[in-house]
# Entry
Amino acid sequence: MQNKNVCMLSSEMSDVVALLDQARQITVLTGAGMAAPSGVPTFRGTNGLWENRRAEELATRNAFTADPHGVWAWYAWRRQRIAECEPNHGHRVLSK
# Structure
């Protein structure tokens, strides 16, 4: 029984590979942890962005209305952090 499942999986994977080979572009959606090895801070992990702040303080319309400068500054800080990071092994594998 297990061999039959492996054959089905192999056949399905062949179909996926064929589709990817024909595609001009693909998009891959991953979780926040994908970029963590590159130094991009996650939201809920150890030392996550929400460990010392609540999402409601920075990532809502009410937060922006109450403190637009503070919200813009926080997003600018995040963009700068990410700009300083390099792709990790997972990113390189996906790009191939």
Remarks:
- The helical segments are 2-22, 55-58, 61-66, 68-83, 89-95.
- The chain has five helices and no strands.
- The mean pLDDT is 85.
